[in-house]
């Protein structure tokens, strides 16, 4: 049974792969991006390149997740009547790795709020993690380390 009672937004994408090119796009036309597939040593068709010519799916996931998370941080701060510093940022690193013969993701998420009280910033970070749909999707699925930087 779906937890959603009302759909607010639907993101649609179609990704194609031909001749070694991976392209993600949408029907609205505002997304048309070439992607680099990760090149994995165990799979010669996906051997790593030193510098990928295009973003990877992991980079796009990190970007989408950080955009969602920083919006959640703003909502939580507003509810707590906290003014966030102008240079508030979210840094997310998403790793693609292998364990045994299976592939997995893991991530590190850092909320950067210079000058904010560390305990307050930590409370905001955890509350945002609880309401951000991307964060909720990762709970129990990938290992995530949540950090707060106030210095």
UniProtKB/TrEMBL annotation:
Biological process according to GO: response to oxidative stress
Annotated signal peptide: none
Family under the similarity heading: Belongs to the OsmC/Ohr family.
PANTHER family named in the record: ORGANIC HYDROPEROXIDE RESISTANCE PROTEIN-LIKE
Name assigned to this protein: Ohr family peroxiredoxin
Organism: Massilia polaris
High-level lineage: Bacteria, Pseudomonadati, Pseudomonadota, Betaproteobacteria, Burkholderiales
């Amino acid at each position: 049974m779906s937890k959603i009672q009302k759909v607010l937004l639907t993101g649609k994408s179609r990704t194609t792969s031909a001749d070694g090119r991976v392209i993600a796009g949408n029907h609205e036309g505002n997304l048309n991006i070439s992607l680099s597939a990760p090149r994995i040593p165990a799979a010669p068709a996906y051997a790593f390149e030193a510098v990928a010519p295009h973003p990877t799916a992991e980079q796009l996931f990190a970007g989408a997740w950080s955009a969602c998370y920083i919006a959640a941080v703003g909502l939580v701060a507003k509810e707590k009547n906290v003014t966030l510093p102008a240079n508030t940022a979210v840094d997310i690193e998403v790793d693609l790795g292998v364990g045994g013969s299976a592939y997995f993701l893991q991530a590190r998420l850092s909320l950067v709020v210079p000058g904010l009280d560390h305990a307050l910033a930590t409370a905001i970070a955890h509350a945002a993690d609880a309401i951000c749909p991307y964060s909720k999707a990762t709970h129990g699925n990938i290992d995530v380390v949540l950090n707060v930087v106030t210095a």
